[in-house]
C-alpha cells in the first residue's frame, strides 16, 4: 500500500514537471501552464507523510520549479514546498517527543514496581544521610530490618536514574536541534541544474538579446567576492537571461520596435564595467525581472554615476538659485591668457534697448573672464 502511494506521488510530480517544461517557452499555449497548475494542485491535496517524502525525494526535485519563468508556477511550487517542510518538521518533533515520553514511562514503571515490593513503611532518604530502620515485635524488642533498607536503596537508585535520563534527554535535544537546522539549510540550498545551451526562440532578434544578457551576467563569476562565491556559483546566467528577456518581451514588445532605447539602456548598464553590483543583483534575483521593466536609467546606474548625476543636479540648482544666465559653449573666442578656444559665454542687456548686448566669456581651461559689447 505504501509503495503504491509513493508511485502515485512520483507520477503526479512527473506530470507537473513535463507541463512546466512545456510552458517555459514564451510561445507555448496557456493550456500547458493550466495543466501544470492542476497537477501541482493534486500534489497539494495528496496525503503525504515523512516516510513518503524521504523515500521519493519529490520535495528536492520540486525545487527546480521555484525558478520557473511563469510566476504562477513558481509561486505554487514555493508554497507546496513550505507545506511539505511543515509536515516533516511536525512529524520529526512528534517522534522525538514520543521517544522521550516512552523513556519516562518506562522509568516511572520501574519505580512503581519497586514500590510494590515494599511491604514495610517507606522511609524517605535524603542525599548524604545514613538510614537505620527498626522493626518492633510484639514483645517490645526491636530488630534491624535489612529488607526495607534494600528497597529504599532501590528507590534512591531509581530516582537518580530518572533524573540522569531526563538530563541526557535534554542534552540530546539541544545537540540535535542545530543539526536539524543545518540539514534544513543544506536541503534548501539545492538548486535546479544549470542550462548548458541557450534556449532558442523563433525570433533572431530575441535570441540576440538573450545572448547579450547572458554575456553580461556571466561577468559576475569573475567579479564576485569570496564570501558570495557559493551563491554566485549556484546561479545560472542562461536561465536568468531567458527569464529576463521573456518578461521584457512581454511588457515592452520586440527590441527593434518603439522600446528599442529601453533595451539598449538596460544592456548598457548590465555591461558597464563600473556597475558590477547591478549585474550581481539581477543574476541572484535580488532585482526581479518584473522590476527591471519599470526601472529608469538613473536607478540602474552605478553608484559612481549616481554621485556624478547628483553633483550635476546640485550645481544646476545652485546656478538657478543664483539667477545667472544660462551659458553656452563655443570655440569662437580665444583666451588672452592661455590661448585656448574652450570657452563658455552668456549675454545680458546692460545698457539701453537700442544698444547691443554685453557678452560675458569664461575660459574653461584657466577660468579667465572677460566681456565685450
Tell me what the structure shows.
This protein has 4 domains: 2-93, Up-down Bundle (Transcription Elongation Factor S-II, Chain A); 113-187; 204-305, no CATH class; 325-372, Single Sheet (N-terminal domain of TfIIb). Helix content is 61%, strand content 7%. It is built from 15 helices and 6 strands. The protein has helices spanning 2-23, 30-45, 50-56, 58-62, 71-117, 146-188, 204-218, 220-223, 229-233, 237-252, 260-271, 276-284, 289-292, 297-300, 303-322; strands spanning 134-136, 142-144, 328-330, 343-348, 358-363, 369-372. It has a 4-stranded antiparallel beta sheet with strand order 3-4-5-6, with no helix packed on it. A two-stranded antiparallel sheet has the order 1-2. α5 (71-117) packs antiparallel against α6, α7 packs across α10 and α7 (204-218) packs parallel to α11 (260-271). Residues 111-162 and 176-189 have low confidence and may be disordered.
Topology summary:
Blueprint: H1 2-23, H2 30-45, H3 50-56, H4 58-62, H5 71-117, E1 134-136, E2 142-144, H6 146-188, H7 204-218, H8 220-223, H9 229-233, H10 237-252, H11 260-271, H12 276-284, H13 289-292, H14 297-300, H15 303-322, E3 328-330, E4 343-348, E5 358-363, E6 369-372
Antiparallel strand pairs: 1-2, 3-4, 4-5, 5-6
Helix pairs in contact: 1-2, 1-3, 2-5, 5-6, 7-10, 7-11
Strand content: 5-15%
Q: How many domains make up the coordinates?
A: 4
Secondary structure class reads alpha+beta
- Secondary-structure element sequence? HHHHHEEHHHHHHHHHHEEEE
Q: Percent of residues in helical segments?
A: 55-70%
Count of strand segments: 6
SS field, number of helical segments: 15
Question: Radius of gyration from the CA trace?
Answer: 39 Å
